Amino acid sequence: MDKDVTSGNPIISTDKLCKTFSYGGVQQHILKNLDIEIYEGDFTVIMGSSGAGKSTLLYALSGMDKPTLGTIKFNQSVISDLSNDKLAVFRRLNCGFVFQQIYLMDNMSILDNILISGLLISSDRKAIAERAKDLLTQVGLNETIWNKFPSQLSGGEAQRAAIVRALVNNPKVIFADEPTGALNSGAGKATLDVLTEVNNRGQSIIMVTHDIKSARRGNRILYMRDGSIQGVCDLGKYVSGDKNRQDKLHSFLNEMGW
Ligand SMILES: Nc1ncnc2c1ncn2[C@@H]1O[C@H](COP(=O)(O)OP(=O)(O)OP(=O)(O)O)[C@@H](O)[C@H]1O
Fold it and tell me: Where does the ABC transporter domain start and stop, copy by copy (predicted)?
């Protein structure tokens, strides 16, 4: 795949990545010989038809699931043949996750939810707490929120807290699966603004979405159909209200048959 001039070095690459599920005695080939490069510092968006294999690809790239065949390299190290235990360590050190369902722990304060993630890789509680508070402030969640419980937050506030939890260990890549899928448009925009800001500071993001407003935030769009990459669109960095970018994305998606 051609490399956008604005992109950095490949942070993840795949070689003939395949994923097959067996269900009810039938084999379903979901990812078919994918050769992909994801570049450092990019906001990569994965779009495509329903069932195309977008989430399956995201889970394979992040080491949440293992490929059936093929190789995945993360920063030049092969991760596709790691044991489950080593993959768990790899994810803890390198990956942050943001999902449509927010999965904060109900019986802990927002700050504790974030601290507990940080303590998985460091025992320096004071430093983690400082980083957590700093990040919470950056995403617009001030001190009055820190000691609340998840059920006392709006959906948008909870998703911003979940982004902080994903960032607290300073991961190389944030993997997001429909992060605005359960949010109203205002909360969705606030979540996208945070992800955009985080990416502008250099954080690599890979996001699966059906939502065109979310997709606009990416600088590189991969379009999947039936387990393959059907097309790639390099949009350049997001600039609010840039009509040329919007038109380019629309005509790419039309071309892909979206
Ligand atoms: N663990 C599993 N076992 C069996 N089949 C699975 C499993 N996970 C996913 N699939 C199948 O793989 C296909 C692709 O699923 P995936 O969730 O990757 O698609 P998607 O492109 O993200 O779809 P959507 O946009 O609808 O969420 C689907 O047909 C799904 O049923």
Answer: 12-251
Model pLDDT, residue 7: 60
For residue 6, pLDDT over 60 is answered with: no
Number of structural domains found in the chain = 1
Pocket of ligand 1 (CB under 6 A): 21, 23, 28, 30, 48, 50-56
CA distance linking residue 65 with residue 61, whole number of Å: 8
Given the DSSP bridges, would you call strands 204-208 and 173-177 parallel, antiparallel or unpaired?
parallel
Query: CA angle at residue 129 from 123 to 131, to 5 degrees?
Result: 105
- Percent of the residues in the chain that have a pLDDT greater than 90, as a whole number: 86
> CATH no. for residue 59?
3.40.50.300
Q: Is residue 156 part of a domain?
A: no
Measured in Å, residue 167 CA sits from the centre of ligand 1 at 27
